[in-house]
């Protein structure tokens, strides 16, 4: 039995109440983190392999436990090369340096502006070099999310860098395709909007789209949004200094009108998104989640980490510089073309699979494996449903969807 330790904020089959998720931060501030950790778990859980998860806060003694109990350490990461993450990155480096097992990093990214300038990361140059050096001492290469991160690491002198994207896109394997279900977007269309409230200049666009499309819903991802929805005492005003022009307080029309939803696990989140005609916004994993659920999506890229993944996977996108109060979901939908995305899924999965193979790792889409074992277990796990909206997604709806693939749930949107 091969034992893999996977960095993840929460085991895919651990059921936690929304209040516990918020209090213990079991989503690492953003539920999108669970999308790529769940995908990594599913992909690596082959026959004869046991996958265990741990948030890997790099505490004293962690390396000794890894050396004694595991055969491989796998670390999916997001935008870890950012100034606010320098100290955790140093702790992670120290732990990796003390391990004796192979270490594989799945899709780390650099936090840069849209111009791709590396200058802002200069204060953590030594931390990044230490981390990458520690990884490469234990593996043949480091997996990065896209072109910006690859260029950044090469500028630091590293050559063993593989662009592999993010595991989240491969949750359902190499056969993913996305097709437009509606001829056009109308006032009656079901639209999921995702937002990064800290991005400036979105307020007017959000206001216009909220009024124009009565069935548009805001699908929140950040822990602050979950806290706001759980905090009944805050219903009469803003939550923790939230902006008034964004759905970060109970007075905003998208919240007051019960048009805001949050999910603390990927399975009900994906099931929910499968019931929409279109998804758009600034959250890269909010839109990847929609695509994995078969729903057309469009990314409003506001930094290098969102732009490099949209480019790598050919996800329809535009930069935030081309977003104004006149930006309209119908125009984005008309503009979106998924032929390049669909054509690229299989070859990019093969690239990802080659990376795993080079690292001595197998995946569940190999011959003789059972890629649906994870899905069957997920379908009967009683995850919490929708927080904040009218409609709840239950394990029963997911079981029906698994049994009858391609049928869209009718209860996703009120």
Please explain how this structure is put together.
This protein is α/β, with parallel strands linked by helices. It folds into two domains: 2-172 and 345-358, Rossmann fold (3-Layer(aba) Sandwich), CATH 3.40.50; 191-343 and 384-403, Rossmann fold, CATH 3.40.50. Helices cover 37% and strands 12% of the residues. It contains 16 helices and twelve strands. The strands form three sheets. It has a six-stranded parallel sheet with strand order 9-8-7-10-11-12, with helices on both faces. Helix 6 links the parallel strand 5 and strand 6. The longest helix is centred in the last third of the chain and has 20 residues, at 339-358. It starts with a strand and ends in an 11-residue tail after the last helix. 50% of the residues are buried. Residues 391-414 have low confidence and may be disordered.
Shape, per Cα inertia axes: globular
Taken together, the total number of domains comes to 2
Query: What is the distance, rounded to the nearest whole angstrom, between the alpha carbons of the first and last residues?
Result: 47 Å
How many β-strand runs?
12
CATH top level of the largest domain is: Alpha Beta
Sketch the major β-sheet: 6 strands, parallel
Give the rounded overall mean pLDDT: 92
Structural class: alpha/beta
Placed side by side, the strands forming the largest sheet appear as 9-8-7-10-11-12
């Amino acid at each position: 039995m091969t034992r893999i330790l996977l960095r993840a904020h929460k085991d895919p089959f651990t059921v936690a109440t929304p209040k516990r998720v918020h209090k213990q931060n079991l989503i690492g501030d953003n539920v999108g983190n669970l999308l790529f950790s769940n995908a990594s778990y599913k992909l690596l859980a082959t026959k004869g392999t046991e996958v265990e998860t741990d948030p890997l806060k790099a505490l004293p003694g962690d390396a000794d436990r890894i050396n004694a109990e595991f055969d491989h350490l796998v670390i999916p990461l997001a935008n870890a090369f950012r100034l606010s993450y320098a100290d955790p990155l140093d702790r992670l480096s120290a732990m990796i340096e003390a391990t004796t097992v192979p270490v594989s990093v799945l899709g780390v990214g650099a936090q840069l502006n849209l111009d791709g300038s590396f200058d802002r990361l200069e204060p953590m140059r030594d931390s990044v070099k230490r981390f990458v050096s520690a990884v490469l001492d234990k593996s043949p290469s480091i997996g990065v999310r896209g072109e910006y991160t690859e260029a950044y690491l090469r500028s630091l002198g590293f050559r063993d860098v593989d662009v592999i994207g993010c595991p989240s896109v491969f949750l359902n394997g190499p056969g993913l395709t996305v097709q437009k279900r509606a001829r056009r977007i109308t006032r009656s269309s079901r639209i999921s909007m995702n937002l990064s409230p800290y991005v400036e200049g979105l307020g007017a666009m959000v206001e216009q789209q909220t009024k124009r499309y009565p069935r548009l819903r805001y699908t929140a991802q950040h822990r602050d949004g979950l806290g706001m929805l759980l905090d009944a005492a805050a219903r009469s005003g803003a939550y923790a200094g939230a902006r008034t022009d964004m759905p970060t307080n109970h007075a905003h029309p998208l919240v007051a009108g019960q048009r805001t939803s949050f999910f603390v696990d990927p399975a009900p989140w994906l099931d929910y998104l499968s019931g929409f005609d279109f998804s758009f916004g600034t959250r890269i994993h909010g839109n990847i989640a929609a695509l994995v659920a078969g729903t057309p999506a469009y990314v409003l890229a506001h930094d290098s980490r969102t732009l490099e993944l949209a480019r790598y996977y050919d996800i329809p996108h535009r930069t935030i510089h081309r977003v104004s109060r006149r930006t309209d979901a119908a125009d984005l939908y008309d503009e979106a073309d998924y032929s390049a995305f669909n054509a690229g899924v299989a070859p990019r999965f093969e690239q990802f699979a080659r990376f795993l193979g080079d690292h001595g790792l197998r995946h569940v889409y190999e011959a003789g494996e059972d890629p649906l074992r994870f899905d069957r277990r997920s379908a009967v796990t009683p995850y919490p449903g929708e927080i904040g909206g009218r409609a709840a997604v239950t394990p029963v709806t997911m079981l029906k969807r698994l049994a009858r693939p391609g049928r869209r749930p009718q209860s996703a949107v009120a």
